[in-house]
Amino acid sequence: MSRDTALVSADWAEKNLDAPGVVFVEVDEDTAAYDGGHIQGAVKLDWKTDLQDPVRRDFVNKAQFEALLSEKGIGNDDIVVLYGGNNNWFAAYAYWYFKLYGHGDVRLLDGGRKKWELDARQLVKDAPARERTSYQAQDPDLAIRAFRDEVVDAIGSKNLIDVRSPDEYAGRLLAPAHLPQEQAQRAGHIPTALSVPWSKAANEDGTFKSDDDLRTLYADAGIDETKDTIAYCRIGERSSHTWFVLKELLGHESVKNYDGSWTEYGSLVGVPVALGDEPGKA
Amino acid sequence: MATMTAPSPVGAAADGCAAPDQAAPIPASVDLAKETVITGVVTATSGETVGGAYVRLLDGTGEFAAEVVTSPVGQFRFFAAPGTWTLRALSRQGNGDATVTADRGINEIGVRVG
Asked: Per residue in A173-208, pLDDT tens?
């Protein structure tokens, strides 16, 4: 993968709004944003109700994913262009998810909803009418998803990247600062995890930094490219953003997203936890 | 990303990461004796409030901590920790910064863009 195949610019998007075989998809947790105005023709995916299992803590299975995409009118051969708010966090999560279920051509809109809005590009309120499809998903590609046991085993051996803010990493905050902080699980980070906040990979308008800047960022942070990498955050969406950068923009071979992330790890009994600004020892 | 029905002890995590409605009252479950709330309004040089502005909270080292979109009347709100923080607003009317030294409870700070 590379920037040319994984990312589209706002200008490209504007020229391809009516292109056959291109489907724009807005992904948000709070879908009020979509309802207030979205890119022309874009369908809506709700991160919580469409992409998460309603009962278990897991995302929707293959059959549920097939039903969802069929109902949204997305075909296997469509070019899916994802975008959303929160600097594309949830769109990046959905991108990872489309890859997990083997979609052929999926891309992210660089800068997402923020750049589109700041550029004063057109937003519409009409919901598109798309014909139902019979979407066929692949079996989940577990080469890009990490589970907790693998994460515990990775301490001191693989690259672990904590992409939360420095205060969350150190244990001074338990959640991003736009959310109330009261939570039951322990604060801190996985020992030996390097702190590389997701935000260092993006410009303030939400677009990704250049490949050269990104290479320098992770090299300076001490990522060993010869080792496998696992990225995590609090609930797995910010780490999807970093997974996208490492795997899809920079082409690192083995990168997994740990979607259980800190809300799982920080609640596990008996696992090691490091506090403070240093990675800590295995 | 705990689901609504997850019987885990991470209840607040069910709120996910999306920006909550910035105009809504602070939920009753929020303990203001413990929380450090940083809140205010984004205004343009004309004095008009700026809805739909992107406001980010930067920590003492300038690193990103969080970002919200202002309400239709320009309001924003963060739950941080005591210390010095910078607010950085981006909008179609222009950009602007403000610095606040916050303590527990409610800390009000305006941001002017233009």
From this structure: 888 877 766 565 799 999 999 999 999 999 999 999
Nearest CA in chain A to B31: A182
- Enumerate residues 126 to 155 of chain A having a beta carbon within 8 A of any beta carbon in chain B: none
Q: Please state the φ and ψ torsions of residue A87, each to the nearest 5 degrees.
A: 55, 35
The Cα A213–Cα A174 span in angstroms is 29
Q: Which of A184, A282, A194 is nearest to A232 (CA)?
A: A194
Q: Is A233 a catalytic residue?
A: yes
B12/A28 CB distance under 8 A: no
B74-85 pLDDT, tens digit per residue, is 999 999 989 999
- The domains found in chain A, sorted by start residue, are 3-140 (3.40.250.10), 144-265 (3.40.250.10)
Instruction: Answer positive or negative: Cα dihedral of B35, A202, A80, A256.
Output: negative
The shortest CB-CB distance from B67 to any of A87, A181, A234 is to: A87
pTM over 0.95: no
Instruction: Give me the domains of chain B, ranges plus CATH numbers.
Output: 32-113 (2.60.40.10)
Rounded average pLDDT over A113-131: 95
Measured from the Cβ of residue A171, the count of other Cβ atoms closer than 10 Å reads 17
Report phi then psi at A134, rounded to 5: -115, 80
Contact B61 A166 (CB under 8 A): yes
Strands (E), chain A: 7-8, 22-28, 43-46, 79-83, 105-109, 159-162, 194-195, 229-232, 255-257
- Inter-chain CB proximity B35 and A53 less than 8 Å: no
- ipTM value for the complex: 0.83
Burial code (b: 16+ CB inside 10 Å, e: under 16) for A151-162 equals beebbeebbbbb
d(CA A51, CA A56): 12
